[in-house]
Design goal:
With 426 residues, the chain is of the alpha+beta class. The longest helix is centred in the last third of the chain and has 18 residues. The two termini are 36 Å apart. Strands 12, 13, 14, 15, 16, 17, 18 and 19 form an eight-stranded antiparallel β-sheet that branches. The protein has a four-stranded antiparallel β-sheet with strand order 2-3-4-9, with no helix packed on it. A four-stranded antiparallel β-sheet has the order 5-6-7-8, with no helix packed on it. The chain is built from eleven helices and 19 strands. It has two domains: 106 residues, Rieske Iron-sulfur Protein, CATH 2.102.10.10; 270 residues, Naphthalene 1,2-dioxygenase Alpha Subunit, Chain A, domain 1, CATH 3.90.380.10. 20% of the residues lie in helices and 25% in strands. Bound molecules: FE2/S2 (inorganic) cluster and fe (ii) ion. The site of FE2/S2 (inorganic) cluster has 9 residues, from loops.
Amino acid sequence: MSEHRADILTRTNAGTPMGDLLRRYWVPAMLAEEIPEPDCPPVRVKLMGEKLLGFRDTKGRPGLVRELCAHRGASLYFGRNEDCGLRCAYHGWKFDINGQCVDLPSAEKMAPRVKIPAYPCIEQGDVIWAYMGPPELKPEPPGLEWSLVPGSHRYLSKRFQECNYLQAMEGGIDTSHVSYVHRFEFDADPSLSINGHLPSKKYIVGDPNVVFHVQEKPSGLTIFGRRNGEIDSFYYRITQWIFPWFTLVPPTGQRAVAGHIWVPIDDENCWTWSINYYPDQPIPAQERKWMEEGAGIHGKAIAGTYMPVANKGNDYLIDRKAQRENRAYSGVFGLAIQDSSLQESMGAIQDRSIETLVGTDAAIARTRSMLLQALKDLEDGLTPPALDTRSQRVRSASVLIDKNKNVEEWALQALEARKENPVYSL
Ligand code: FES
Ligand SMILES: [Fe+2]
């Protein structure tokens, strides 16, 4: 890919083409747990290069405002969250969740004319979502199934990732890597099997030559990774990519549906969100405990932070002995860190001029071309894809499908996120 195109896809600061596109969507800004109660301490939030502060006011309403005060630019992080607003600690100017100055002690009459940038927020599915685009184009709230199920049915985590969002997201839609870097994880991680047994493991490990094809939809892609199954069937891992940064990845065993979001912090860092949910039942206690401990797609964080314990600074705690003994394919443990270690190893922004894409990268190539097309359409004044909530209501699958069946037709019906449809997981 040319440097110019790669640049367009990876740069997301305000005023860049991709920055403008991403700002048309609700942005996952914080976990609701980061601002757990009214008047709690504000949190620093950096999104797409913008330094912001998240807080919850006295009425419990979430807000996201520019970090720096309108007076002389001190950080409101050191301010006081009180009486429905953040008061700057320096000279006492106070701002509400809309960024409006509501108290300006040294020149009271000026307050109505003073504002700091602020973005509207909603709380849905344990996430504080912010809308950072043109106010008149604010879309309806997200319709993703995981964000609408009861809290008992869902577990969410986020982790700091030291690379551009695009190469991380491209890792999420590339299911061929499962047979390599994650190869031994199914034995090492109890949360990925059912009492030590995983029916799909024999297909995943037994046939590393995944045959990919992608089905393009207005809202994104359905990605089919086909491996040998039984005599009369193929084993499919079916991933959904939904504009602009959501994936739903195939579940394992009888486990919950899984998904990710990759949100740019700036051009060289992103938040990787990981989601597990059941459409129709609470997450069993043991499974939730595993997730909280960082098993499966979640990863273990340094206490009180969203920084993984195994990170770039310590070579992800690579264990060469475990690698030799086939306990961890790369010597790094955990699905989450296996992914981030390799994605971060590409550099802060992957140099795509040296890459060699092959058939198994079809989904990556198609995603890039769809994003570029959406950028062009945006320039022409068209509405970006997947803003209608119906198109977001899909699921992933891990499933055996009869060789004679048209899998694309099957998926259109069976993977719609509807109550009547079971979760297809092996
Ligand atoms: S810098 Fe904030 S009140 Fe003066
Ligand atoms: Fe992975």
